[in-house]
């Protein structure tokens, strides 16, 4: 019997609680795969009071029966990777035997971070300055380094081409510094690097189950997000195939995660922002600070137009609602269900992703609730399922897995 693969994506601007869900779901799968992004997003998992933040390693790694794969669609930073490995060694066994990295993943070097920082300081769009954009840039123009290049006799030749792209010759300090960086890590990486597309397809043919983990939210997708205030990779579900080498016919379910409210960190439009007093309460109660940069997240009301649009382009089959406890105690709350054109008065239900400045959100008001047993909460869940026409599969509250996840039958 052949195996199958499911996908987890965030349906907002990230920070939907994907890591907690991936950690929870991973017990049902043999392998978890990161298929895009880099070390620019933090994925937080709490275990017995301990906080773990993952940037490159899949969020399933604390499950000791899970294999973790970093796919070809990822831009890979060896410095961050080994920092994560060292922090995890005391908490989970056999970690170095349970991680594989695609030989086709692109490498993030210090020069990428330097260029990212220079550009962000000149023209801010809200990047983390982790070198992600420049790394994808050098990949696309075919001058970047793949992990396989580290073990090639043409490494120096390819490295010179990359450094020349950024204007550094072999006599520059930048050239020497980046070459030393490569030499420091390449021997350490040998044991992790393999042809992961072959491994994944072979595993599926043997009946194994795979879960794909998205890194950033769908509204940060380079094509379907709020461009140019987006990440530098495709975050939608279909890119899991491109970023891993797994064919589409293995895909079974696509899980879409969203919080009961909306957050955004960095630059870019954010039409559903709350009143300041409510926003500050949500930020404090929901610990809405970036895991990678520590930046305060803007908080807004739930935008169902956004969820509906992103569910459509990702083919979501099951929804996962998180952080419901942050609303416990509110007398009422708002939900955006449509947008009104500021100039024509036209009402639209779909998310005007590239023209948000021309529209204003239209809200419905809902009665608050104090627990999941409240009839007000049940009514709200029924409304969500009817509006989105997709079943809600998991409801999540709090940080810990053991007492906060409710799987709906």
Task: Name some characteristics of this structure.
single chain, 409 residues, five-stranded mixed beta sheet
Structure description:
Strand 3 and strand 4 form a beta hairpin. The chain is 29% helix and 23% strand. The protein has 409 residues and is α/β, with parallel strands linked by helices. The longest helix has 17 residues, at 173-189. It has eleven helices and 19 strands. The mean pLDDT is 94. The two termini are 26 Å apart. The strands form four sheets. The protein has a ten-stranded mixed sheet with strand order 9-7-5-2-10-1-11-14-18-19, sandwiched between helices. Helix 3 packs across helix 4.
Break the fold down into its secondary structure elements and pairings:
Blueprint lengths: L3 E7 L7 H8 L5 E4 L8 E5 L2 E5 L12 E4 L4 E2 L1 H11 L10 E4 L3 E2 L2 H13 L9 H9 L14 H11 L7 H17 L3 E2 L1 H10 L3 E5 L25 H4 L8 E9 L1 E4 L11 H10 L12 E6 H11 L3 E5 L9 E10 L5 E2 L10 E9 L7 H14 L3 E5 L8 E3 L2
